Amino acid sequence: MKIFPVLILIAACFCEPAALQAQAPNGWPIFEKVTFKKKFIDEFGIPIRWPVFDEKIRAWEGRKIMLTGYIIPTAQAGYQGVLVSKYTYNMCFFCGKAGLESVAEIRLKTPLRDFKIDKPYVFTGHLRLNDSDMNSLVFILEDAVLMEM
């Protein structure tokens, strides 16, 4: 009779709950592996950092990933997405303290009504890599949903 609790304990150590097995991978480490090259943009008359996606990075295209980050406020009319930074607002890319690999565009299925800039949020969505549209960020989460924390 004493062996039954021991077997349960052993089984619990080797079995993961289904929720953990189905969890989408964290996107930030993927983004950190992207390299950038300088590319001159005639339209702006300046060189910018342009992403170079190798085969390993391209393999993530369309796959579901998760991002935990801080919302960066934007004021673009009609846009129902948000920008998310790996770092807090005062350390984000747009403040000059981080790189392009630390921000992502989140295109939500349903608009986010209210948010706080100093609170971390978790989003899941399908990754789209952008190396052609200068009006969007390099990393985009499409069909994204806000997860409960």
Please explain how this structure is put together.
The protein is an alpha+beta fold and 149 residues long. The protein has a domain at 23-33 and 62-147: Nucleic acid-binding proteins (OB fold (Dihydrolipoamide Acetyltransferase, E2P), Beta Barrel). Helix content is 17%, strand content 35%. The protein contains 4 helices and 7 strands; from the N terminus they run αααββαβββββ. It has helices at residues 3-14, 18-21, 28-32, 55-58; strands at 35-41, 46-52, 64-72, 82-85, 103-108, 120-129, 139-147. Strands 3-4-5-7-6 form a 5-stranded mixed beta barrel. The chain is globular, with a radius of gyration of 19 Å. The protein starts with a helix and ends with a strand.
The oligomeric state of the chains shown is single chain
Instruction: Report the CATH C-level class of the domain at 23-33 and 62-147.
Output: Mainly Beta
Mean pLDDT: 82
CATH architecture of the domain at 23-33 and 62-147, please?
Beta Barrel
Strand count: 7
The helix-strand sequence is HHHEEHEEEEE
| Uncertain segments | 4-21
In which range does the helix fraction lie?
Answer: 10-25%
Major sheet: order of its strands?
3-4-5-7-6
Q: Judging from the principal axes of the Cα atoms, what is the shape?
A: globular
CATH fold node name of the domain at 23-33 and 62-147:
OB fold (Dihydrolipoamide Acetyltransferase, E2P)
Class from helix and strand fractions: alpha+beta
How large is the radius of gyration?
19 Å
The main β sheet shows up as: 5 strands, mixed, barrel
According to CATH, the homologous superfamily of the domain at 23-33 and 62-147 is Nucleic acid-binding proteins
Count of DSSP H/I helices: 4
Q: Could you tell me the strand content as a percent range?
A: 25-35%
End-to-end gap: 40 Å
